[in-house]
Amino acid sequence: NLPIGSKRRPTHGAGFILLGDAAGLIDPFSGEGIGNAFYSARIGVAACAEAIGEGDTSARSLRRYDDRLWDVLGDELKVSHQMQWIGRVRPLLNFVINKAARNESVADHVCGMLANAVPKKDMTSPLYYLKLLLS
């Protein structure tokens, strides 16, 4: 089992950093991980270059990677984790799926969230479900 990004785990140590799936950056809602892997690689390269340039690859020095990584991805992973829990409420999930099946605008919005084109945070708001109920 690969660790999903539902909680913050250490992603660095003395002389190493973890990237992508190894860092537990799999999106808890969609199961996608390649985008987060690329972000972690970009952030990791910069953090490692700085640490090597300073001649200090200790865990303390490489903590900058961990901090930057979670500054960039933390909120999105948190929202995806919330959506994962919402998806476990079967009546609510069925309600959204049935609305999407009957309403093209709702279907486009849900697909947009899955494709990261629309903020997933929308789906964690009770107001979102009230709007669906009234549409």
Provide a short characterization of the protein structure.
The protein is mostly helical.
In words, what does this structure look like?
By secondary structure, this protein is an all-alpha fold. The protein folds into 2 domains: 1-77, no CATH class; 89-135, no CATH class. The chain is 61% helix and 3% strand. It has 5 helices and 2 strands. It has helices at 34-53, 59-87, 90-102, 104-114, 126-134; strands at residues 12-13, 16-17. A two-stranded antiparallel ribbon has the order 1-2. Strand 1 (12-13) and strand 2 form a beta hairpin. Helix 1 (34-53) runs antiparallel to helix 2 and helix 3 crosses helix 4 (104-114). The radius of gyration is 18 Å and the shape is elongated. The model has no long low-confidence stretch (mean pLDDT 89).
Question: Percent of residues in helical segments?
Answer: 55-70%
- Counted beta strands: 2
Average the pLDDT over all residues and give the rounded result. 89
Structural class: mainly alpha
Helix count equals: 5
List keywords for this structure.
mainly alpha, two-stranded antiparallel sheet, 135 residues
Layout of secondary structure:
Layout lengths: L11 E2 L2 E2 L16 H20 L5 H29 L2 H13 L1 H11 L11 H9 L1
Antiparallel strand pairs: 1-2
Helix pairs in contact: 1-2, 3-4
